[in-house]
Fold Glyoxylate/hydroxypyruvate reductase B.
Amino acid sequence: MEKYKVVIAVNYIHPRFLEMIAPYCEIIRQWKYPEQISENLLTQWISGAEGLVAGQGSPVTAKVLAQATNLKVITLPQTGYNEVDIAAATAYGIPVGHTPGVLTETVAELAMAITLCAARDLIPAHQFVLEGKWMEGTYPVFGMDLSRRTMGILGMGAIGISLSRRARACGMTVIYHNRHPRTDDTVRCTEYVTVDELLRRSDVLVAAMPLTDETRHMIDINWFKKMKKTAIFVNIARGGVVNTSDLITALQTGQIAKAALDVSEPEPLPVDHPLLALPNALVFPHIGSLTERTRRDMAELAARNLLKGLAGNALETCVNEKVNYSSNS
């Protein structure tokens, strides 16, 4: 049997993914460098491909897709899909698979962990011990407790719901803002509020929405000015939902107290980036789903989506369901 021709446009792919597709696919091109692949190079690579493995840093633009005359499917081993021009893929009839669901609990765990880390000043407390200050007998105050505080969540999808359970377990009240209120607030003990009320009431504000044209740089200095000066801003969404220079200003001027970020713009942040010089900003290297079990689950779902799309069968998790293959095609 002739193998399907596949291009891998991300610099790392889980070994389980490669293991699953090996019997059926020939990798004709694979990007292996730390910097992202260029649009021009991907345009050259894509012409003979039937399957494309994309992800963070893969510029799957309309220009690229115009040359993808044989492409049957795009698979992303991640939940986010802002790297792909979905409108163009849909226009060309190319289904795009991603991996929602399998990372929900893992990302929510990380969100709660970095919230606690910032709130309770855990890294400064650890440094306090390493510097020998514990022996001096004078204890500073390390942070604030979360019980009887309010967490506001921007984007109450699956990850937001999972995070809300953890926040309530810490004794927090949970409020949120979506495009539309949920119908299960009574069951989940959550409350839908306007953006202004979310900003005004939140002791911890968590960004958990997708990055779209609508949400890009949505969180800016005008938002920070409406928040409590004691508030903590947490971002587990995408770096692009925040105006980074405005965030730096808000942290420097005391408009908000702290930030804990698992995502940034750009990624990775250069070591001389001003955000990394702020004592009230914790920056983590986008590790929300970075556990072995979850990454394996993501790889397996991404591989299944690729193989099903190549065979003309319905992807399990398709972004542009309008052009997904039928189940028995």
The mean pLDDT is 95. The chain has two domains: 4-101+292-323, 104-283. Residues 4-101+292-323 form a domain with the Rossmann fold fold (CATH 3.40.50.720).
